[in-house]
């Protein structure tokens, strides 16, 4: 995929992952963060797919690639939200 295709793909994947994970931070997440979460989530999903199946996942605009990318972005966003929540919780406990 080309550069702009990755941006569009990442934005769609990040937006869907953001809807699925939800939370308070959902309203504060901008378009750039959605694209980054989508692209990094697609890479994470492809890596997990390759480790689990031994096959290389080629990303394109098709449903299998989209599904793998969404699952990777959901995992990434959930981990980031949990890490952010734990950090805010520790800061609140210090006060």
Q: Output the helix-strand order.
A: HHH
Low-confidence sequence ranges:
none
Level of helix content? over 70%
Query: Largest sheet at a glance?
Result: none
Radius of gyration based on Cα positions: 15 Å
Mean pLDDT: 77
The global form is globular
Describe the model.
The chain contains three helices and no strands. The protein has helices spanning 3-21, 31-53, 63-94. The mean pLDDT is 77.
Question: What can be said about this structure in brief?
Answer:
The chain is mainly alpha-helical and 95 residues long.
Q: Key features?
A:
95 residues; mainly alpha; 3 helices; 0% strand; globular
Strand and helix layout:
Blueprint lengths: L2 H19 L9 H23 L9 H32 L1
Helix pairs in contact: 1-2, 1-3, 2-3
